[in-house]
Write a structure and sequence with these properties.
Helix content is 20%, strand content 35%. It has 4 helices and 13 strands. The radius of gyration is 33 Å and the shape is elongated. It is α+β, with helices and mostly antiparallel strands. A 6-stranded mixed beta barrel has the order 1-3-2-6-5-4.
């Protein structure tokens, strides 16, 4: 489970696009806290403080205590809007959570021990199929990350969710199949060698059959059978 981070906030009294623009002009980031069967709470955030959290890996799987006017709200980040030109943070959505809440959360995948993978040493290409995995869990059971150990993996190997160490209390949202998390693909050079070898093997296998079908060079053609069979004299 990831540690709970603290964020300070201030209340804002108005909603709407005009109020949000006024908040940004004042140097703050508008945000909202919703959920847990309570009324939404409109807040503003210090841009430097919230950006430090937003740009950390696994932000959407991080529990936050947002303190507003002496009251702490345990929340999970749900959405962040950015300016398409400046990448400035424009708005943040938080969901209130309690210990009994079941939530869907995307947890980042972290690869370990790349140097211990023989397949990578031979030039294999690491393909991270899923950079994040969606889990269903309670707030207290959110994994900080999912680690995939590459030790001993050869070219062509793949790691599926069934062989990944999933923390207790967390269940993959995809339950109907053993999906792939990472693979080690063959590099182009090895693929070319394999294709050439297959082609050569196919040619060699076809050659004897072709030779048996053709008559020997210089051999007399086979005599045609007599029409009507032998006649008695």
């Amino acid at each position: 489970m990831s540690a709970v981070q603290s964020v300070s906030a201030e209340l804002r009294d108005r909603a709407g696009k005009g109020a949000a623009r006024a908040t940004r002009r004042a140097g703050r980031v508008p945000a909202v806290i919703y959920g847990d069967k309570k009324e939404p709470t409109l807040i503003t955030l210090d841009p430097k403080e919230i950006d430090r959290h937003i740009h950390k890996k696994g932000f959407f799987a991080t529990l936050l205590d947002v303190e507003v006017g002496g009251t702490k709200h345990r929340v999970l980040p749900r959405d962040v809007q950015f300016d398409v030109v400046t990448d400035r943070t424009l708005h943040v959505d938080f969901q209130r959570v309690s210990k009994d809440t079941k939530i869907h959360v995307n947890v980042p995948v972290v690869v370990r021990n790349e140097a211990a993978a023989p397949g990578l040493k031979r030039g294999g290409v690491l393909n991270i199929v899923r950079h994040e995995i969606e889990f269903i869990c309670s707030p207290d059971s959110i994994p900080q990350m999912i680690e995939v150990d590459l030790t001993g993996l050869e070219v062509g190997a793949s790691v599926h969710i069934s062989s990944v160490n999933v923390p207790a209390g967390a269940t993959p949202a995809i339950r109907d199949r053993d999906f792939t998390v990472i693979t080690i693909a063959a590099p182009s050079a090895l693929k070319s060698e394999a294709e050439e070898a297959q082609s050569a093997a196919a040619t060699a296998a076809a050659a004897p059959a072709a030779g048996a079908a053709a008559p020997a060079k210089g051999a007399a053609p086979a005599a045609a059978p007599a029409k009507g069979g032998d006649k008695k004299k």
